[in-house]
Amino acid sequence: MAFRIYNTMSRTKEELRPIDGRQVRMYTCGPTVYNYAHIGNFRAYMFEDLLRRYIKFCGFEVVQVQNLTDVDDKTIRASIEQGLPLKEYTKKYIDAFFDDLAKLNIEPAEHYPAATDYIPEMITLIEKLFEKGYAYQSADGSVYYSIDKFAEYGKLAHLDREGMQSGARVDQDEYDKDNAADFALWKAYVPEDGDVVWDSPWGRGRPGWHIECSAMSMKLLGESFDIHTGGVDNIFPHHEDEIAQSEAATGKPYSKYWMHCGYLVVDGKKMSKSLGNFHTLREVLDMGYSGREVRYELLSGHYRQSLNFAFKSLDANRAALKRLDEFSANIKEAGGSETEAGELPEWAANTRAKFAGAMDDDMNISGAMAAIFDTVHAGNKAMTESVVSEKQARAVSNLWGELDAVLGILEAPEEEVSAEVAALLEARTVARTEKNWAESDRIRDALAELGWTVKDTPEGPKLRKI
RNA sequence: GGUGCGGUAGCCAAGUGGUUAGGCACUGGAUUGCAAAUCCAUGAACAUCGGUUCGAAUCCGAUCCGCACCUCCA
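The joint structure predicted for all components is written out below.
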């Protein structure tokens, strides 16, 4: 089987074949750290996490770069408003970003370059564009990229110049540019930038947004690399401009594959800061939901489709996760103290193939989850009938671990049973032996207060975290 | 105007010519002191209209509706 991914450039599914045959180098557009990211933003990071995990599942190595945009209009404006140096202001949100990634069980990328640490690389890249005739300086001192010089401009977004001319939003103020669609490589200093300024051969100023990603990706991954990802809103202009800059400068193909995820929507509308219909992760966690429930939510739809966010979905996820946890706990108990894995039981023999078959098809997560739940059902049935040996259970546990390396949601957090809870459970067992049902039920309620449900099974009472 | 994505049961969400997707919720039963969990059983769907076909959720055409991008955006 081969992992096939949808390439926005070709608009078809293509087999993933890393350029060097072994290692997948991927670049993912990261956050602008002027504020807390909202969970719509995390949908993209979640998609990228699933992608990198599945690439590894397929046996490739991964080197992932995710940039931190720590200089732009918004970060500058906000830092000046708060009277903080830019670096100090953005640090708070960079820390929060990493904190949120951890809560969502998103694997760290190999590199997190901050734009302000790569200014020399950006300047070098712009110089190269000057040499090759793609860049020009306007009267106000800013440097622009001339899209007319790059014949393939528009190849990713499939936009032609005519369509753009009649576009709904052509900025009338951009009088300094040769063409309204030319974009800034270097922005000349203006007083509103405060002390956020660097020297360059074209005068003082700061880099444009698009050049940041081109400079950092090529510095860390090479002039040609494998996968570039982002949200669909990055296709144009951001990724189109990255291609124009990078390929014009190097004369080589930039990224081999382009992958874009759909939006998180609320009541049919894209979740966004400007619409105000967003929630930050910390807000949702404060409401009592777990990072794991949010992860399940963000994972539960195909990455290219828009995904509907609703709190009642999170509630439904809680129930689904409980079902998964119940199975995991039972299979673990069925394994006893056995450490050696035997053959997989017949009901789990095809699980891995079904899971991988779905994931191979451009990460069909719904098909993959169906393979999981089908196995849960068949396994519950087998365990109900007590036809699962300890060695078989051990093998299933191992399989679960292997699949969870991709999903990151199957392993429930370990919960310690406190002495108080253990004592209550013991007291309840005594009460039940004496058929003192009133006392037994009272203790069960008390355990529920402490966050535990108790199930009475033929093998004795079992505790489960609520 | 240009370019894309979509409309599947109460809700979420796969499927792209024939065979139960899956999850949550609901209903009946088994089990249980009562529960919980689990199992068994059951119900429910392809926006509308036409066409192609032995057969269409799937292909073709038209229509209606929703969303997004077209220089801040994951």
